[in-house]
């Protein structure tokens, strides 16, 4: 069959126009440069305005020509154009907090069912005036919904929110309107990929009569699931190298480490495929990336890794720590933005890497600074061993510090306190400081006294994952049987949420998390309801490679090695492969383990599904993978009965 001739009116080549060229004869025209004779000779017209932030608006002469084509019955696909036919729209708005829902019947588009949620990332939409467009059921509709992947309440919303329609046949029905920017759906990483391919295939077939093969629709990224029988060590080495490359190729590392690291990549993917950069320089992220470079030095003996790690560590202690002050001495600043803010768990993740360096190499460099940081935290810790969520220097005074230390903190939260308490116990192992031991033990016992009803930030899964390393070090410190039982209980409880792929689903018994999916303009969980096939690599699973390996170091139980291997296989499976250096080698926050791609509820203020945190995610996961490869050498540094530096 002879290919149809399609006029593509656009200001720039795009994903969609390139696909049209594969199945039809395309003649591109710029708005303002239309040729009436070519419009007349064409079989169909595609107006693709989504290549630019400003939608297309036609001048009267060209508008008349296009209206004539519509009235002749010619198929016209109109994307991101403010006015055509009877439809017109006001200024575009962001789709950041909204989701697209498929409203068609089960058989209308193969691969899609009514209620399917499609993610168009941080897009722009020209919402039509409801009195100017058809009120028939649309193909796609924007909804303010918190569901993970399926919205059951489609029909009622469609009828009540006409201006939120996104893709629909207008009057006459040969005019197919798309109010949002779909032209670069590949590079903007619309998800789920298979459902978008089905939709694009439908659009192209409607316009050209040709069914484009899925194989011709490229992807911005892919994953390479681990296959049983593969050499895990080789896969891990490759994964680690790609992750370490990311720090520099994504321009996260600043001046070879002298300037620290940028926080990472924000969740917002814009319609042209660019992604927001998180430019803050955070103390915790800097310390965690220093840890990754240190462990990679141990693995490769590459001195450049050691030098970068040392520069990053120097910044943590020499630029972010208060050296002299009557009552704030030792305080470690959160970031170059949150200059007077102190989150104790973030401080812990800045100093634990250096404490581990001391443990594994015997150095005492910055050990005094670590102790000063911990002493400041202890001075602001309650009598129950827990510390309030955060402190701000502007609110602290000698009297306020005395008040904080003279009453219970009443904050039994693994998210805010467990790594802080772990840092105290690791510091005790290195120095024998009894106050560190006392507060660390007391705090973890306080948290476990209410377990599993701890104060949850995002999910129960998060709390379980965060407790494994601290409880390992608690048992290492006390060698008490009850503390060992707590470690095994938490790990066994976590197994209830294990998916067949080896990852652990987000879960929250009783839905008690503070940051639930109903949050607006704040941090938010990925979880809508228990059972959703979503995992979190920013707040939950990222802690597991180190956690399981530390549990093995302390207990000697190969059970934890098996768990480390299983989570490591998942990590290499969900690591991103892309020509885009900002995501290649990275792990994004949300991963759907059934669709096997980055996908999740986008409600979080800035750390949504596509957020890639340099420290919390990249530094922690990479360090944990390397730690496992070096397990036999590192395990020699652990002794449950005495401290390394006291021997």
Give a structural overview.
This protein is α+β, with helices and mostly antiparallel strands and 647 residues long. It contains 19 helices and 20 strands. The protein has helices at residues 15-23, 36-41, 60-71, 154-160, 193-208, 232-249, 283-300, 303-318, 344-361, 367-379, 398-405, 414-431, 434-450, 460-478, 481-494, 544-555, 558-574, 614-629, 631-635; strands at 5-10, 25-29, 44-48, 75-79, 83-84, 87-88, 93-94, 99-102, 117-118, 124-125, 140-143, 165-169, 175-178, 264-269, 275-278, 341-342, 391-392, 534-536, 590-592, 612-613. The strands form 6 sheets. A 9-stranded mixed beta sheet has the order 2-1-3-4-13-12-11-8-9, with helices on both faces. A 3-stranded antiparallel beta sheet has the order 15-14-20. A hairpin with a 5-residue loop joins β14 and β15. α12 (414-431) packs antiparallel against α13 and α14 runs antiparallel to α15 (481-494). The relative contact order is 0.10. Mean pLDDT is 96; it is low at 641-647.
